[in-house]
Specification:
Layout lengths: L2 H6 L40 H9 L7 H15 L8 E2 L1 H8 L3 H13 L3 E4 L3 E4 L10 H8 L4 H23 L5 H20 L2 H17 L4 H4 L2 H9 L13 H15 L3 H12 L16
Antiparallel strand pairs: 1-3, 2-3
Helix pairs in contact: 3-5, 3-6, 4-5, 6-11, 7-9, 7-13, 8-9, 8-12, 9-11, 12-13
């Protein structure tokens, strides 16, 4: 039986099949992200009304402690444009406003510097760098741009980048027929099928993200492998151009299954074609990613 046929039967299989039955989706090995308190909202009084306004509306943290939360808030403020290029960042002021230690501020600015968002120079201090200096492939910056004023451009660029990366990865992966990888990809398709039947969009998206990340990792190209984080970030960004990965449907599930079948058969051309079909956007956003050209 092909993976496609096997997958389409998933929702009807009983609990003893090894898949989670109704109410048992917690068997899927993903832990919920921990919920932690947000960094205390600072009172940006006096000379920095911009910082105060953005600081109060900064998005939730990722459960990484004060250091991670400060990186998140300052990063969003820079990417949103509320802290413009060449804006000075005074560590002492940041520490006072956010009520964190100098060590937390110093380490947070180092992280932002590594992402290309700020620069620190002797006798000049720490300043925001222009967009041309940012590491636009950094997963955090991808997320911050996707939920900021540049959201439309970010999501369009992500879709175009995926169109470039993933069909090639699918073709290359067909030449690396590891049984354990094939099984894991098949498992992800089964989980997506079961989740779709249960109306569980969260589990579907998690399995989908693992499917695409694993596919890139087994393509046998280390440079492509380093781009897998971009694809994962793109799949986590909602509200962008709608592709087959964004709308769980039988057609979407079928494209995923056909990719697995093509990999199992070592058919790189078929794997590439199935991936292109999966990534074709729907008519309302067809201008974003072109349909494959006829040869």
């Amino acid at each position: 039986m092909s993976t496609l046929a096997h997958t389409m039967m998933t929702a009807a299989r009983s609990a003893d099949s090894g898949l989670a039955g109704p109410g048992e989706l917690d068997r899927y090995p993903y832990a919920e992200a921990p919920v932690t308190e947000r960094l205390g909202a600072p009172s940006w009084d006096g000379s920095d009304p911009e910082l105060g306004r953005v600081g109060r509306r900064a998005a939730g943290n990722r459960g990484r402690g004060l250091h991670g939360q400060l990186v998140q808030q300052l990063g969003q403020m820079i990417v949103s444009g509320d802290l413009g290029a060449d804006r000075p960042l005074v560590p002492e002021e940041i520490g006072q406003r956010f009520e964190v230690s100098r060590t937390v501020v110093r380490e947070s600015l180092r992280v932002l510097e590594a992402k290309g968002l700020v620069s620190a120079r002797p006798n000049v201090g720490t300043r925001v760098r222009p967009v041309s200096d940012w590491n636009l492939l950094d997963p955090d910056i991808i997320e911050w741009r996707a939920f900021g004023p540049q959201r439309d451009n970010q999501r369009r660029e992500l879709s175009e980048l995926r169109w470039t990366i993933e069909p090639l990865a699918a073709r290359l992966a067909a030449g690396h027929g590891r049984e354990d990888v094939q099984q894991r990809l098949c498992d992800m398709v089964e989980i997506m099928g079961h989740a779709m039947g249960q109306g569980d969009a969260l589990t579907f998206s998690r399995a989908d993200a693992e499917f695409h990340s694993l596919l890139i990792q087994v393509a046998g190209n280390r440079m492509l492998e380093h781009l897998s984080g971009i694809v994962s970030s793109a799949l986590q960004v909602s509200g962008g151009p709608v592709t087959g990965c964004d709308r769980p449907t039988d057609a979407s599930l079928g494209h995923h299954a056909r990719i697995v079948d093509a990999l199992a058969a070592g058919d790189g051309a078929a794997a590439e074609a199935a991936m292109r079909q999966l990534l074709i956007v729907h008519p309302e956003v067809e201008r974003v990613v072109p349909a494959p050209r006829e040869h």
